[in-house]
Amino acid sequence: MDDTELAERLARDLDGTFEALVRAHVDRCHAIALRVLGNPHDAEEVAQDALVRAYRALEGWPPERIREVRLRPWLATIVVNQCRNRVRRHAPPTTPLAPLVEAGLEPPADPSGDPAGLAARAAGRDQLASLLAGLPERYRVPVVLRHVDDLSYAELAEVLGRPEGTLKAQVHRGLALLRAAAAGTGLEEMTA
């Protein structure tokens, strides 16, 4: 079921349909939190908290508003805000690289399955994770949402409350900082 149909069902029967919303979006909420926070335990808590907040918000909305909500960016907004709250309360995060595979920020797979090649690839992912974790939040969050979660710039603008042009510049700058940081580390191909 797509998000439009899900929103329609939520408007008619919130309690009976909310579980379907959770099933449809919990993995994505967790993935966003994991990429932003870098800690699986914190990401799990943030995803759960975000879904609870979503339920509480929907409880207070009239059916017309529920029907109009764009669930994917709305939930991403809640998750990102929950991540920001957690970062403010806790130590700086680290970001694992494994989820960045889909973003095209890693070298091509070694088709030979050579153990040395696989080890080098894993080491490269760890280095890139460190580089990503080192990005300032204003660049890291847009890069993760754009290139890992594959949100459009319009959805990014909705999630982060910034103009599309600003977000394009922040994503570009974030990727440029990653490339510059990768220079001389052997990760140039990963960030090219």
Question: Can you describe this structure?
Answer:
The chain has 192 residues and is mainly α. The protein folds into 2 domains: 87 residues, Orthogonal Bundle (Rna Polymerase Sigma Factor, Chain: A); 94 residues, Arc Repressor Mutant, subunit A, CATH 1.10.10. 74% of the residues lie in helices and 0% in strands. The mean pLDDT is 83.
Briefly characterize the structure:
The chain is mainly alpha-helical. 74% of the residues lie in helices and 0% in strands.
Q: Which structural class matches the secondary elements?
A: mainly alpha
Give me the Rg, rounded: 18 Å
CATH class of the largest domain: Mainly Alpha
Mean pLDDT, as a whole number? Answer: 83
Global shape? elongated
* Major pleated sheet: none
CATH topology of the largest domain: Arc Repressor Mutant, subunit A
Low-pLDDT parts are none
- Approximate strand percentage: under 5%
Task: Work out the helix count.
Answer: 10
How many β-strand runs? 0
What is the fold's blueprint, element by element?
Blueprint: H1 3-12, H2 14-37, H3 40-59, H4 63-68, H5 71-89, H6 115-134, H7 137-148, H8 153-160, H9 164-182, H10 188-191
Which labels suit this protein?
single chain; 192 residues; mainly alpha; Rna Polymerase Sigma Factor, Chain: A; Arc Repressor Mutant, subunit A; 2 domains; 10 helices; 0% strand; elongated
